[in-house]
Amino acid sequence: MKGAGTLNQKEARYILDTIAAMFPDAHCELHHSNPFELTIAVLLSAQCTDETVNKVTATLFQKYKRPEDYLAVPLEELEQDIRRIGLYRNKAKHIQALCAMLLDKYNGDVPREHEKLVELPGVGRKTANVVVSNAFGVPAIAVDTHVERVSKRLGFAGEKDSVLEVEKKLMKRVPREEWTQTHHRLIFFGRYHCKAQNPQCEICPLVEHCREGKKRMKTSPSRQPKQKEKEAKL
């Protein structure tokens, strides 16, 4: 069953190509100019929109250029600088701890290796995947809420799969050289088209491949008169 993540290769390829055609220019929307800024931006983006993060980092990255800069101010000052971000107190602590570790272990540079990145405070698997793929060109699929939702709706993964299981199933289905671009395209598809609350099923070219989309279209008001007509004829 497709909901269990058992798409065949032909279906998977069709879905990937369709999304690629819809969002050919999908990219990382977090503003950054180097791996360090990207790491900070992704850390801030947890449970927060990229739009809000970009507003905050527009001034944050002017004030703080290097790890030393984040450690040169009291924690309370950093908290105030990012207070528009959700969970800002925890994130401020993580940023200062992360900067201390970068200086202590990596001469102030962000490591390129995934296993070293996930050891940094506030950096989980998703953040590490975003950093290695966007900053260092290493193929990776980061699973955020958009990628998880779209992958489950379109049958790349099962409804009850964990984030890690979704990532592993996508890695099996998507050619390695397409991992990073597919990650961006799935995010754009989920953010701008296949939204959590109001997905655009009526104009979606993939609705026949989507269990939830087919269900929504059956119950959509525009379809109900036709359904009643059919029932009347029976």
UniProtKB/TrEMBL annotation:
Ranges of residues in domain HhH-GPD: 44-192
Sequence positions that bind [4Fe-4S] cluster: C194, C201, C204, C210
Cofactor note: Binds 1 [4Fe-4S] cluster.
InterPro entries, per the entry: Endonuclease-III-like_CS2 (IPR004036), Endonuclease3_FeS-loop_motif (IPR003651), HhH-GPD_domain (IPR003265), HhH_motif (IPR000445), Nth (IPR005759)
Catalytic activity: 2'-deoxyribonucleotide-(2'-deoxyribose 5'-phosphate)-2'-deoxyribonucleotide-DNA = a 3'-end 2'-deoxyribonucleotide-(2,3-dehydro-2,3-deoxyribose 5'-phosphate)-DNA + a 5'-end 5'-phospho-2'-deoxyribonucleoside-DNA + H(+)
Cofactor: [4Fe-4S] cluster
E.C. code: 4.2.99.18
Gene Ontology terms, MF aspect: class I DNA-(apurinic or apyrimidinic site) endonuclease activity
Similarity annotation: Belongs to the Nth/MutY family.
Function of the protein: DNA repair enzyme that has both DNA N-glycosylase activity and AP-lyase activity. The DNA N-glycosylase activity releases various damaged pyrimidines from DNA by cleaving the N-glycosidic bond, leaving an AP (apurinic/apyrimidinic) site. The AP-lyase activity cleaves the phosphodiester bond 3' to the AP site by a beta-elimination, leaving a 3'-terminal unsaturated sugar and a product with a terminal 5'-phosphate.
Full protein name: Endonuclease III
Source species: Paenibacillus allorhizosphaerae
Gene assigned in the entry: nth
